[in-house]
């Protein structure tokens, strides 16, 4: 058994390398910098390429460029840098270019609390860039999950030809715990086009909702743009093509949400009260479940590993048998509205939040549940 | 002996505007830089920092080390915010307050260069200082485009130490046609104060490049900070000069440049270098020094 004692940032770098990431472009920012430092050390060992860029705009632009050549590519940042990346995140969604963007969340807005924990970029991950689009965002709560889930992030990004946001947080980034390196993991490689360079169209829906992407530099000549484009990739403002394109790039994710959504449950079988949480807050929520169970309160936990697309069906299903539901987040309740609309209106949904840069504690959650 | 000659002339203002209690590391060159810059510029000033060591050094309330108004802005916007402030105070009829952007090398050479170039092109009335410690020290010693060839950083680990020259930011700024540019060093306090006073009297964009050693990032003895800054000048690694309306003028001209190894060997960030690497650095330093002398000769006063 291959066991390591690593931090979340180290686990993210290790997982990315295992997933086949061979290109990293980034810019220093607390609390994500160790991901970059690890990649600068380890990528050359696997013939990968590491570049430190001049800012976050350049970082995401570079991974988009590298991804077009066929390299699995990634960058990592935190809130302020993620803000700068938003335009290009939309570009990657529009150009349908696979890439993984890690956001190690810290307190915000603006410079906020650079060395403190928060989960404040959940909505920014969904709607930070402009225009109608879908996004995949994953959120681990432990070192083990970080390693395993970032592999899923790369896989989803290749399967759905889309940018994937990997939402970590400061606490997870810097704690050190056991990581068991799994012997077998599923790694998805980018589908290659069947057509030769002459007949290839990068957005040809006749070959499927998610047409294969040819590698730049491999003889294929095609056009990629952030403008609305037709099947050849060249710009158009044709109303029908525009409608079809936007519907396709959104439904390719929404209609596959059951394959993308990952959740875990903890002691929910007989639960009457449910905690819903994600990321580092899950750790406190789990402990809170145990505390409350000691007091004979039947509580369970639903952990969201996928935040976007939102696990609406899973939450709806599990909520049916609950008397009350608590949404535990380290923000002011960013997922409240999203959760509220998927559970029956007669079931109370109560926010449990912490926004002071400290980790939410099990006692805080337990006492809120005991309040009723 | 003539009594008059013995009298000490004070060339650096005595008043301390930067106070004790700051949060800089021991031997921080950037802290010394601020102390002298404020002495020269006085209290009638508005400071503007992007993310950089100084956004931490100034300290949390009530430990603020600078007794002047301070705008801590986003990383890429030091010059742009200074442009806004300087035009704003002009609009309200204030023609006496100095506006100074104060940024590290990352916030200047890399992420901030677009805003800086914009301010310089418009020739907005501001002083822009880069305190150059040759890497992103605040986030944990990652390389910047001010990191010199050969240096270790956490993103240029020893096996892959930085290969490539430091960006010549000064030539880039000179090319903008700004009225005043000066390179200064914390080891030459009088020269530095004189240059800041001169900058204050000139209208337009003034660019001050302050060489500020960082013991934490350079893996050097905190007691050696001033010595290192001095050696950088004496070896030609960081020559001191001014460019006034395009005219180059050397401030300090060593009779003979010291070997660059004397400067390198005091720093852990260079300890992996082999003789070939040091020879290469020496060659480059001399090349650049000679180019500078040519510029002084061609474009001098």
Descriptive terms for the model:
heterodimer; A: 372 residues; alpha/beta; Rossmann fold; five-stranded mixed β-sheet; 14 helices; 15 strands; B: 301 residues; eight-stranded mixed β-sheet; 12 helices; 14% strand
Brief sketch in words of this structure:
Chain A has 372 residues and is of the alpha/beta class. Chain A has 14 helices and 15 strands.
Explained architecture:
The complex is a heterodimer of chains A (372) and B (301). Chain A has helices at 8-19, 33-42, 56-68, 79-84, 86-95, 122-127, 143-159, 170-174, 239-254, 257-260, 281-294, 312-319, 336-340, 362-371, and strands at 2-7, 21-26, 49-52, 72-77, 99-107, 113-117, 136-138, 163-169, 176-181, 263-266, 273-277, 299-304, 306-308, 324-329, 349-353. Chain A is of the alpha/beta class and 372 residues long. The longest helix of chain A has 17 residues, at 143-159. The N and C termini of chain A lie far apart (45 Å). Chain B is of the alpha/beta class and 301 residues long. Helices cover 38% and strands 14% of the residues of chain B. In chain B, helix 8 (189-201) links the parallel strand 5 (180-185) and strand 6 (205-211). The A-B interface holds A 27-30, 33-34, 36-37, 40-41, 44, 50, 52, 54-56, 80, 84, 110-111 and B 51, 55, 72, 74-76, 106, 110-111, 113, 136, 139-140, 142-143, 145, 154-157, 159-160.
